[in-house]
What does this fold into?
Amino acid sequence: MKNKLQSSITVIKLGGSFLTDKNIPNSVRKQAIESSIKQIIQATLTLDHNAIIVHGGGSFGHPMALKYKIHQGLDTETPNQDLGLALTHHKMEELNGIILSEFLVRGFPVMSLPPASMFYHNSKGLNFTGKPQIESLLELGVTPILYGDVLLHSSPNFSILSGDRIILELCKSLGPSRISKVIFVFDEDGLYIPDPSDSTCNILKLNLSYSQLENLEITQKDPKIDVTGGIEGKLQEVRKIVALEIPVQFLNGNVPNNLFKAIDGQKVRSTTISYK
Ligand code: IP8
It folds into this structure.
């Protein structure tokens, strides 16, 4: 058992659009999953860091949530929302099971912590009770995995908790000084903005600061079914993460060894967002 409790933590978001084909329900991108998992394993075994993995919903969680309007909360006009709530959670568990198995078959210890049982929305807002469990897993040398999930509210009601919102909560709760960076793995080289001199082109932003994130117009190459606000929803959470002075990096998981290099602090073609 490898105790690296003092090591810094890299939070890795495996985006749903990277892990799955968002346009075909329940379809995984097997090669993308295998390659990213091998890189996380290699980095965690050879580099002085701990990983916490969070994954998105892709073509598992989003279409089901959309079908039953789970993201819009309790609605008497929508039939069978109770079943939809359960099915959305189950879809996420299904995708999570696929990812989990890819680590375990390689003999690498990971454990899933279901967000629906660690996050609750009460009258004061979002409440997170999973810090002790995450600390224990890190201490035991087991990499925690969380994922976007359904969120239960007092009222009673429900909504969808994105993986990005989970990451913000982890950063706040574990303490920004322990988190060296948050890496978003997706299927583009980084964040693109429209080219002001040519409306048919986009420019990859290599570096961005906190202040530049406000009112940033991001080009979305190929918008997908998304109940958590797409790239705009993501950027809202990212802004709050960067405000904690935690650097954020967006990179292309399809480029061989990109993720390993980024965890190792090597330069890769990507967008890096820092506070200043
Ligand atoms: O893909 C969404 O998580 P995200 C989770 O991180 C569900 O926004 C259940 C759709």
Summary: Residues 16, 56-57, 61-62, 65, 88, 92, 148-149, 160, 162-164, 227-228 surround Isopentenyl phosphate (CB under 6 Å). The chain has a mean pLDDT of 94.
